[in-house]
Amino acid sequence: MRKNELGHILDTYLNKDKKVKVFYDIDEIELNKMLKNMQPFDKPDIISTYDKKIIGIEHFEFDSYRNTEKGSDYRLKTKHIQEQLQEIGSIDIINLESSSSLENYYKNFIKIFKDHYQKINIYKDRIKLFYDKDYEIELWYFVEDVTLFGNFFKLDDNKVKRLLPIYSKEVINLLKESPEIKGIFLGTNIGREHQIVIIQNNEETLKRLEYETLELTEKDFITFEPKIKH
Questions:
Q1: What is the Cα–Cα distance from 145 to 62, expressed in whole angstroms?
Q2: For residue 131, what are the contacts with CB-CB under 8 A and spacing of at least 6?
Q3: What number of other Cβ atoms are within 10 A of residue 84's Cβ?
């Protein structure tokens, strides 16, 4: 995880040139206050204080590769390549194969979501150590899909669309079962272009999102594998 979570998020997703998609309606004044007052913290990674309210934002990453106790297998491969390059100066790589899949995409998101949700009380207790107990506390996630070049799926008309966790019924049910999280900032990338999706975790939004879910299979899933040669 990066040392400067907030700086990375601001530079990558929240500068004035970036596109924002919201599911669905959101109070723009409230959102702008939240973003304007963000500052680094520790457990959770970011807080925003305004109007007797504290928004705690925990940042985490996921991808669509096979993950083990050592981490993402794809990241381990690329790290090994970088180490070899530093050591011997050159290396021939014809193709970087990966374990990217639709199953891994959803599974990795759900696992890390649950892992962080178990720490909700730790985040709240940490905030209370530093701020007046009269403040209202809300918790959000900033979730980054760091799969190289992003994840996509193909529609029946052969159009390619960006994949989001909320297209899974299992993820929608997970949000329903996680009322302590009031919303999610989802960082995505399309090729090299980064975009942010904002999802409020409330009853109205989840009811509408249920109609967005899709019965996708591995045949529908699309990802891009790089070819590298040095």
A1: 5
A2: 49, 54
A3: 14
Residue 161: C-alpha distances to residues 5, 141, 212, 216 (Å): 28, 23, 13, 12
What does the alpha-carbon distance between residue 46 and residue 38 come to, in Å, rounded to a whole number?
Answer: 6
pLDDT tens digits for range 27-63: 889 989 999 999 999 999 999 999 999 999 999 999 9
d(CA 207, CA 163): 19
Q: Output the six-digit token pair for 82.
A: 């970088």
User: How many Å apart are CA 62 and CA 73, to the nearest integer?
Assistant: 12
On whether the CB atoms of residues 80 and 74 are closer than 8 A, the answer is no
pLDDT in tens, 117-176: 999 999 999 999 998 878 999 999 999 998 878 899 998 878 899 999 999 999 999 999
The span from the CA of 136 to the CA of 26, in Å, is: 19
Q: How far apart are CA 145 and CA 23, in angstroms?
A: 18
Instruction: State how far Cα 53 lies from the chain centre.
Output: 24
Round to whole Å and give the CA distance between 168 and 209.
10
The proportion of the chain whose per-residue pLDDT surpasses 90, expressed as a percent, equals 57
d(CA 191, CA 49): 34
